[in-house]
Amino acid sequence: MVLIRQFEETADKLTLRGKVPGGMHNSSGQEAVAVGVLSALAPDDVIATTHRSHHHTLAKGMSAREVMAELFTKVTGISKGRGASMHLGDFKRGHFGGNGIVGAGVGIAMGAALGIHIRGDHKVAVGFVGDGGMNTGRTWEALNMAVIWKLPFILVVDNNQYAVETFIKRVTGGDDLAARAAGFGVPAYTINGQDVLEVRKYVEEARERALAGEGPTFINAVTYRYMGHNVGEKGLYRTQEEIEDWRKHRDPIDQFSEKLIESGELSQSEFEAMKKSVTDEVADAVAFAESSDEPGIETVEFGVDSGLLGARN
Questions:
Q1: Are strands 188-192 and 217-222 parallel, antiparallel or unpaired?
Q2: CB 114, CB 149: distance < 8 Å
Q3: Assigned domain for 82 exists
Q4: Which CATH number covers residue 162?
Q5: Domain carrying residue 231
Q6: How high is the mean pLDDT of the chain?
Q7: DSSP category for residue 123
Q8: Is 313 within a domain?
Q9: What would the pLDDT profile of 221-248 be if each residue is shown by its tens digit?
Q10: Is 297 a member of any domain?
Q11: What pLDDT was estimated at residue 17?
Q12: What is the number of domains present in the chain?
């Protein structure tokens, strides 16, 4: 979580300086959802995510170097410099990509779960979606198919409560996402997305059900993004008091570090050393990205080995 926070704060500043082409969507504040989910999964489990996917990608185990290089659109990036911020992914490592289409990650992950089911593999697929995807048809169509086929699928709402500038309660009938999902006959929960251990617990249980052939689970993880929808947003739709309240009283890193320090599992000096090492790691990632080459035509891959459809010329 500390790595994600440092990475996002650094990338945010670099974007404002024009170093990150096309901008980015900062996930600061939402670290516990990503880390809680991914820490409950096996390395070969599949994820598919959203336009705001840096935190999911880093939690999946991708290095700060390759993610930062992708933001810089360099050939050493996770998508060889052709995906940039919104299209991070590596099929070979079970990351089926970030996506600018609202709700698309859910459909892609459901398709992956169907493939897993047909092949008889012992793993699961997780589809991330924001609260803005809760009123999109493809989200519920994908969940419905996962239910009727009992697919090894977990739908995680990375619910930061604002779809761009729109507060979720203004546009969501019934006001209860878990209750809506439960209508499909699926275990559905609303949980504290700022508590990394709570997130991990619910995903572990969902994974066990999926592997036992009991089908999908819906998890609405309520969290909060500290920054705007995208870098450079003026953000006049919420108050600074609201943002500061979440930062001061519900920050996932503060809550977890305090719990570890109080229990004696982490000392303050160890925590400070961790933050220092993360700062160095992100600085190294920036230097790596800046020194890397732009992608050339010779790096384009086709065929099954690359994870892309088509034939090699």
A1: parallel
A2: yes
A3: yes
A4: 3.40.50.970
A5: 2-19+27-289
A6: 94
A7: -
A8: no
A9: 999 999 989 998 888 899 999 999 999 9
A10: no
A11: 92
A12: 1
